[in-house]
Amino acid sequence: MTSPPFCPGYPPPFDVLVASFPGSTVYPQDAFRVEWGPIFHRGRLDGTAQVLILGQDPAVHETVTRRILVGVAGQRVQGLLTRLGLTRSYVMVNTFLYSVFGQSGGTGHIHDPGITTYRNQWLTTLTATSPVTAVITLGTLAADAFAQWQQTPAGAAYTGHHAALLHPPFPSPRRRRAKPRSPQRPRNCSRTGTPLCRPSEPRSPNRTSHKTAAPTAKPSPTQTFPPSRRPTSRPDCRSGCAANETGPPASA
Fold this sequence. Notes:
The protein is an alpha/beta fold and 252 residues long. It has helices spanning 14-19, 60-65, 72-83, 102-108, 113-129, 140-150, 153-157, 173-176; strands spanning 32-33, 41-43, 51-55, 90-94, 99-100, 134-138, 161-165. The protein has a domain at 25-168: Uracil-DNA Glycosylase, subunit E. The strands form two sheets. Strands 2-4-3-6-7 form a five-stranded mixed β-sheet. A two-stranded antiparallel sheet has the order 1-5. The longest helix has 17 residues, at 113-129.
């Protein structure tokens, strides 16, 4: 089977790494979404990468595109690289080949020998075939994975810079900052400017608090009302309402 001209496949020596990827025997299915398949990298494998990005695990966007760091985290990382002036000379790999079921799944298997050995092969091959001068780790798991690689002969010989960053989806301080209340709008009023409430009036020094005010006496049942406010009385039905009703009297 021949590959399409627009997808020549992974070049050597990465083709050997891709062909020998670990499956469910190394990545347990109760902690990783093995059925989504492995997702290996994104970036330059032609020997021109100067910065190596070490992420955590792929998600839904990466599963569709089959490249890592293309979702929300990838957009933030791409913005960081653009600010650094790097638009092509970078390469990205993840700590795990498969998507993780929550943070606990990755934390429980970060030191598994099979996962660590395969990941170290990628880091060793990338630093040996490209002039990588800086490694950026995203999150605590990626920093732990880089520390494990530094314990290998190839990792111990690496003299580039390491920058440990927070995971990109972590909310920025600008998003967490609460918006100040507008001083022109009274409290509990409409945001559209409709005067639904009156401005607060200054409290009078002689005003009695509602907590200490004496209870208002209830009107007596025999209280006399002015003629204009006198309620309309109904007929006294205790002696029989049939005589006051319109129509013939009720039969006995």
